[in-house]
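Subject: sequence -> structure tokens, single chain

Hey, anyone have a minute? Need the predicted structure for the following. Not urgent.
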Amino acid sequence: MDLNSVYQRLNTGSKKWSQYPQDVLPMWVADMDFPVAEPIVQALKNRLEHPLLGYSVAQDSLRQTLVAHLARHYDWVIQPEDLVFLPGVEPGVNMALNTLVPPGSGVLVQTPNYSPLLHAPANWKLPRVDLPFHVDANGHYPTDIAALNNALLQSRALLLSNPHNPLGKVFERDELRAIGEACVQHDVLIISDEIHADILFDGRRHTPIASLSPEIAARSVTLMSASKAWNIAGLKTAFAVIQNAGLRQRFNAGRLGLVDSVNALGLEATEVAYRDGAPWLAEVMAYLQGNRDYLAEAINTRFPGIRMHLPQSTYLAWLDCSDLGLEHPQRFFLEHVRVALSDGLEFGDECGQFVRLNFGCPRPMLEEGLARMERSLRERR
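Reply:
Had a minute. Here:
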């Protein structure tokens, strides 16, 4: 598989490549510039040979495929009926907040965080309770469990990003257990965005928080999708795992009139990704880890004013530009060398000196983006 070629995505309706003028190199939104796995492409072609594309439901084979994947990769045993299919993780987050959290209740969010999670509580007039991450001497972002327990006193729900976007953090099993047990103790619902579960580096293995105990599972809504790992975000398909039947019934009721059913092609692609997509994903993961390491080396040797802690997961790097002395780093790189990064302010009010860089792209594209950024800083001196 050729992962070094840069595919022409202009005029394809790509959000990533349409947001900015054509001379801008887009390294912002989290989709990858790699061709989709051939088994997925072939399955979509086969499905389109049937001339009808009416309303669709998940077939038993898809449910069984997901049950098998969760058991094989995460040691998480669920039942087919625990699955609820959705047109995205974000609708699932909002459904859970709207239907499962009492009006006016606090929602705890660890910051910085993915913008749609950060702003979701406000959609339902729920006060957000922020719990900031602080980097330690090893470049890690541990959860302050004492501070978490204190913040949970003001909360009825926790929005968890596991693995974490934008930090690229993989939660340790004991850390997740402590978070889950604190939520049990304080009677707090866990809404866990685990969309990056299959993108972990250095041999790490994902742990769904709901897999840690029946008590944690009973108060958890876990949201997953093939969209990030298999690069099919445009097919708008995700699923929730809700093992508590009462929660699941209330959650499902919340979709009426607000959240539509899932499209036929997305369901087809999801089944094939989880069933037949492992070889493609293994090759892409090796390439991504190489990109991550190349990026880290470049930042450490060519960008003395930027700090980066090695991502443990995702294909997103969280870059601290504080030492560059720029008023607005994201705007600087966009205006001076036409490189589009995600603005740190999207992830938290205190993150204006950060940018998020997407390294899920062919190496030549990554090299070009870094060369442009380096040139802008050199010309500024």
